[in-house]
């Protein structure tokens, strides 16, 4: 029997929260233990929770009044390093994608994804340390890295840090291949594919303590 994964949902659309909670709770392996209407509401609630009750994965929207999801992720990761944040948003532009990953997001999915896909990604994130990245987001990530900024920009040299194999994995994800198909094409295991994707995210995480300290609680 699989261990139940504790999940948090942060979204300013109440109907979205209710609907997503119902669908996630329907899974026998997920349990929504926290809901919040924006980043500040989320931070206040996790501060009041016992450490043992905290969600393991927080499904975070980006564009919210008060405190944005990106700010909440950066502060949340600084205060609760074990929390994993999965961005679920309608935005797929490069700036928001990079800002979310920079803040410490462990995955980035679009709201158009089927609930089964979201559930699988949450489970993979915890059980296999696999970072969620849909084909659309993989393509955006590749485009983002390809457009190297001038020296001095935080993105400088990030693309060059990707190994040949990581670039191959990213390209196959853009084509829509899942972990299993990528593994077969590259003659490696599915777990190795997941590790490569995790490494891509790690190389994009450019958090610094000074950056986090600039984010205040409103």
Number of helices: 11
Largest sheet: 5 strands, parallel
Q: Give the radius of gyration.
A: 17 Å
Strand and helix order: EHEHEHEHEHHHHHHH
Structural class by sheet pairing and helices:
alpha/beta
Count the strands? 5
Mean pLDDT over the full residue set: 79
Approximately how much beta-strand content do the residues carry?
5-15%
Low-confidence stretches: 148-156, 206-218
Report the helical percentage. Answer: 40-55%
Structural features, described:
The protein is of the alpha/beta class and 218 residues long. Helix content is 51%, strand content 12%. The protein is built from eleven helices and five strands; from the N terminus they run βαβαβαβαβααααααα. Strands 2-1-3-4-5 form a five-stranded parallel β-sheet, with helices on both faces. Helix 8 (164-174) crosses helix 10 (190-204). The longest helix has 15 residues, at 190-204. Residues 148-156 and 206-218 have low confidence and may be disordered.
Task: Provide a compact summary of the structure.
The protein has 218 residues and is of the alpha/beta class. Helix content is 51%, strand content 12%.
């Amino acid at each position: 029997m699989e261990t139940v994964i504790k999940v948090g949902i942060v979204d300013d659309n109440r109907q979205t929260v209710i609907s997503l909670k119902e669908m996630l709770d329907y899974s026998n392996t997920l349990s929504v233990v926290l809901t919040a209407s924006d980043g500040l509401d989320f931070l206040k609630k996790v501060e009041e929770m016992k450490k043992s009750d905290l969600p393991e994965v927080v499904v975070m929207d980006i564009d919210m009044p008060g405190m944005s999801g990106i700010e909440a992720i950066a502060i949340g990761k600084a205060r609760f390093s074990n929390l994993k944040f999965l961005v679920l948003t309608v935005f797929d532009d490069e700036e928001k994608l990079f800002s979310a990953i920079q803040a410490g997001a462990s995955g980035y999915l679009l709201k158009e994804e089927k609930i089964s896909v979201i559930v699988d990604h949450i489970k993979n994130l915890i059980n296999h340390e696999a970072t969620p990245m849909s084909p659309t987001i993989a393509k955006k990530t590749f485009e983002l890295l390809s457009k190297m900024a001038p020296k001095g920009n935080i993105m400088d040299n990030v693309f060059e840090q990707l190994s040949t194999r990581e670039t191959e994995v990213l390209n196959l994800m853009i084509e829509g291949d899942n972990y299993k198909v990528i593994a077969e094409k590259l003659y490696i295991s599915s777990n190795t594919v997941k590790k490569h994707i995790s490494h891509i995210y790690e190389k994009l995480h450019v958090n610094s303590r000074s950056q986090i300290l600039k984010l205040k609680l409103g």
